[in-house]
Amino acid sequence: MKILPTRAASVSRQGLCTALLVASLTAAVGVSPPHNTADADEPTPGSDNPQSLPHGTPNLTLPDLRPHSPGGLPGTPSAGGNTPDGSTGIPATALDAYKKAEAQARTELPNCHIPWQLIAGIGKVESEHGTIFGTHLLPDGTTDKPILGPALTGREFALVRDTDGGFWDGDTQYDHAVGPMQFIPSTWKHIGSDGNGGYKNPNNIYDAALGTARYLCANGRDLNKPGDLDKAILSYNPSREYVKSVVAWMRAYQGGDVTALPDASGSPSAPRIPAGNTPSSPSAPSTPGTSRPSPQQSQKPSTPNKPSTPSKPKPSEPGKPTKPTDPGKPTPPAPTTARLERVGDAQWTATAGETFKEQARVRTLTDAGKPTAGTRVRFEIIGETKARFPGTGTVFTVTTGKDGTAAAPAVIANDQAGQFTVRATVEGRDITPVDFAATVKAMPVESVVLVGDKPGPAAPSTTFGAIRVQTLGKNGKPLAGVSGLTATVLAADGVTPTTVGPYFKKDGKAVRTIALGPTDEKGSVSLPDLFADAKVGPYRLKISTADGQVLSFEVRVEAARG
Questions:
Q1: Which positions ≥6 away from 244 have C-beta within 8 Å?
Q2: CA–CA gap between residue 361 and residue 255 (Å, rounded)
Q3: Residue 247: which of 228, 268, 264 has the closest Cα?
Q4: Cα(117)–Cα(246) distance, rounded to whole angstroms?
Q5: Residue 48's pLDDT is what?
Q6: Per-residue pLDDT tens digits for 378-436
Q7: Which of 70, 207, 266, 367 counts the most CB atoms within 10 A of its CB?
Q8: Which H or E element spans position 8?
Q9: Mapped to the 3 state alphabet, what secondary structure does 60-88 carry?
Q10: Strand 418-426 and strand 434-441: pairing?
Q11: pLDDT of amino acid 550
């Protein structure tokens, strides 16, 4: 087919190629009747999986196909033929996350055959690879501010009442889709993944991409099979148009030279919002590209305007002075932030593994004490603990509202006890910061267990085998950093102290009670060597925690046989 060197012919060719692409994609994924969520063979968390219900407005714009021209377009192959346009660029961090998710899935789920381009297709359609609403990806893969879908109130989208206590989406009434891959919190609870060595965070592109791979591969799907590919994508959104769009982008990424874009710039087609938009009042995701004129508008010829009759100037009345034009009053300068004021408690306490009830909140004020709006406030967690803001790591930046207040999300204490500081500063201003002092208490020990087998009998004047114990918290979770454990040798009744029998050494002397070091990352600690003296018989070894949990078992000294 000869390409005519006219703009009209080029547009017609582009439309024809797009139509052919859609037709081929429909054949690739199979033609099926309207999707019924109830019998879609969905993955976790069950047949009522809200992830498969309408939960937002994805970008269903298909990639353009354009005739190849010498020199090519950015992001297109150098060979001839019809190739995707420059929109195949992907932010470098997102591209790395997609490829690493594919590699991880290849190891974990070798029969799934998921390509990274499919994960990228989901990322493109759901959030422009984490750049929708003017967000961008930080070096660790976390979005600089959370990406939240609309509240799922059952009106425009599905009805999904709150399942996470507002932990990820800040809403304690209804759930929202969260992060660059738009996971519903209840789905993330089951499918959540850690793709880069941190905690499972749907706002992190590495975690979300790996979670997407596991989600699409659920139920033993083989994505080389068109039927399984179709079911997998429909499990994300029950829309035939959604399937076409995701697969179109997957094919575009597979067929073109994908350009790694700078993370801060993101996709050139990503919509932008003012920097003052904060996570506390998210806007519903909108479909990029919908601002194009409709076919009726673009094809309707404009009516030429009739020439207008020039108006005759009105002569001013004699004797009447002409009123000068009012230049308008000058706009007063915006009030300048001069200081920060703490709002709420300065001292916080939480138990490891929980979320602090308190939140860092400050108010920006002028010298006269009036609040200043539109001031950028940075909150930073400073200290050695693993405490984090949900979805944003150790730094959270927000703009003050009309009342001059700025608030950070509640801090996750994580599983490490200790102390840290949350510091609030004003960006670009040398203003005294405001600090919040936080303490993470160790999680209570629910039980102490032996690691491995109980030590066998020891002959007199020898040592017992290695003894290692583990501390566990709620739901059997190992507790790291637990201190205050002691090991004590008692008589056979497990109550009466003894001056004979097995013993430890401290400073070269025999002792029958000894303090143990803090538990390691797996909640474990090894006891020092336990020696047997010449007194044979049964004894009890008791391991105690500072909060009263006890593990007790028999150790026996037996004379050597023969």
A1: 22, 25, 26, 29, 60, 62
A2: 49
A3: 228
A4: 10
A5: 57
A6: 999 998 778 888 765 788 888 888 899 999 888 988 777 889 999 999 988 889 999 99
A7: 207
A8: helix 7-29
A9: CCCCCEEECCCCCCCCCCCCCCEEECHHH
A10: antiparallel
A11: 96
pTM of the shown model: 0.44
- For residue range 347-387, what is the model confidence (pLDDT) as tens digits? 999 988 788 999 999 999 999 999 999 898 999 999 877 88
Long-range contacts of 127-130 (CB under 8 A, 24+ apart): 127/179, 127/180, 127/181, 127/182, 127/285, 128/59, 128/266, 128/267, 128/269, 128/270, 128/271, 128/288, 129/90, 129/91, 129/94, 129/180, 129/205, 129/266, 129/267, 130/91, 130/94, 130/180, 130/205, 130/266
CA distance 365 to 311: 55
Q: Which carries the bigger pLDDT value, residue 488 or residue 324?
A: 488
In angstroms, the CA 516 to CA 518 distance is: 7
| Range name among 179-188, 191-200, 528-537 with the lowest pLDDT average | 191-200
* Number of neighbouring beta carbons within 10 Å of residue 165: 11
**What Rg value do the Cα atoms of the chain yield, rounded?**
33
DSSP assigned state of 528 = P
Beta-strand pair 537-544/486-490: antiparallel
3-class DSSP assignment, residue 239: coil
Token pair 């709002």: residue: 343
163, pLDDT greater than 50: yes
- More confident call, 304 vs 59: 59
Q: State the Cα–Cα distance between residues 488 and 504, nearest whole angstrom.
A: 9
Which is higher by pLDDT, 82 or 102?
102
Closest CA to 128 of 291, 285, 290: 285
CA atoms of 208 and 146, how far apart (whole Å): 13
Please state the rounded mean pLDDT for residues 481-507.
94
Q: Is residue 299 scored above 70 in pLDDT?
A: no
Eight-state DSSP code of residue 374: S
- Residue 324 predicted with pLDDT over 70: no
Q: Do residues 149 and 155 lie in contact, with contact meaning Cβ atoms separated by under 8 Å? A: no
Nearest to 487 by CA among 536, 531, 522: 531
Q: Which residues contact 274 (CB under 8 A, 6 or more apart)?
A: 134
Indicate if the pLDDT at residue 253 is higher than 60.
yes
DSSP 30: -
DSSP summary character for residue 170 = S
Strands (E), 223-307: 260-261
Q: Which of 34, 88, 237 is nearest to 149 (CA)?
A: 237
Q: Which residues, 6 or more positions from 387, have their beta carbon under 8 angstroms from its beta carbon?
A: 381, 394, 411, 412, 413, 414, 420, 438, 440
Q: How far apart are CA 438 and CA 442, in angstroms?
A: 13
Whether the link from the prior residue into 324 is cis, omega within 30° of 0, is: no
